[in-house]
Amino acid sequence: MWAKKESREKFSTGLAVFFATLGSALGLGNIWKFPYLTGENGGGAFLFVYVICILFVGIPVMVCEFYIGRKTRKNAVGAFEKLKAHPAWKIIGFMGILSAYLIMFFYSCVAGWVYLYMFKAVKGDFASITARSAEAEFGSAVIGPWSPLIWQLIVLVAVAVILIGGVKKGIERVTKTLLPVLFILILVCDIRALTLPGASQGVQFLFHVDFARLTPEVILTALGLAFFKLSLGMGTMITYGSYFTDDNNMIATPVKVAASDTMVSLLAGIAIFPTVFSFQMEPGAGPGLLFMTIPLVFSQIPLGNILLVAFFFLTSIAATTAMISLVEVPVAYFAEERGISRTGAVIFNCFLIMLIGILATLSAHKAALLGKIPVFGKTFFDLFDYTSSNILLPVGGLLIALFVGHVVRKEEFRDELSNHGTLSMDGLINFVYFLIRWVTPVLLALVFLNSIGVLNI
Ligand code: PHE
Hints:
Bound molecules: phenylalanine
Number of helices: 19
Number of domains: 1
Oligomer: single chain
Structural class: mainly alpha
Largest sheet: none
CATH superfamily: Amino acid/polyamine transporter I
Order of helices and strands: HHHHHHHHHHHHHHHHHHH
């Protein structure tokens, strides 16, 4: 048993832990989803609820996941066995695997768009782009059917190649080097966007809180986004926690990851909304928002096209590292619990994602082949997104918080979080434990009950 434990890979240093975790958190969620959901749901008020969700739900759930992962050094299903929990708790792991698939179906599609936009930028397709042509350009890129499918396939092949390289060689190396560069490039976008005529209206939209915009559904969407953003509620952070070093500070890491992640989302918002208002576009334009605005940000400035290529290149890196952490959930499960080789598990999962992902890609735009076919009142693309973000991840988070807050003994929790007594932060651990035990689950339950109309707050 020890030999098996020793052979499991770990991240090599604390910094690598931070970057790998951030690599999972940062992704299309910040650059694509956060801006478009903020735009659709009224700007500042949505942002306000989102930040509350990160603080009182996101960070505590992340601590719980790291606890489960590092304590057991197991995948999201095996971990509950190792903790000798009632077998029913394994549902968290299975739901997580299901969420990972649902997210990957549409995430790989959008990542394909990002790769495609990088390619188009290299060809110089955006040289004379205008606010009007940006929309048509987006439509012609994503309606397909062939081109977006081929790009989705390219994305999945890239993910498979990195994953077969293994935890250290693959994930660590890519995230450590490229994330800081992405950060700098978004800052460049911000500076450009803020100096556009009429930029202040965009900033006002992002930060002005109008509580009248808050409906139960908007609150649920903000909660779902918080889970999606921080890769929570589905075992990714359990799996990553299982590769953590023994001396990692498991409260400081979630706080740092959440803060950096939220900052990148805000910076992406600051790049996009001033542009939207400056070019008189529609903030609620939906999933195409990023693709219509960013080429405009860089149009008509010196070196604009090079910056545009760099932007989509780095976004594709961020999307790829996030996807690696998504696919890692089923891969770790199949490799560790089902005795399939790691390579076999990667290939099988990527193949499956491509196969069903076709449904997402062909329904992502209303003019696409399956764009008007409703399944439970939504397109496949929206259904995969809604079911995972707004239902499965928050339910997974609720179960995880209930498990750690009410099944795990407090002494064990304190022992693991203080790295077996080497960190003296009893007060902080008590506070986090209190949040996990009472505040987080109650908030989650309230948001759910409210959104299905049982409560009416
Ligand atoms: N957090 C990632 C993003 O924002 C997406 C993700 C969700 C990754 C869930 C892993 C697990 O893009």
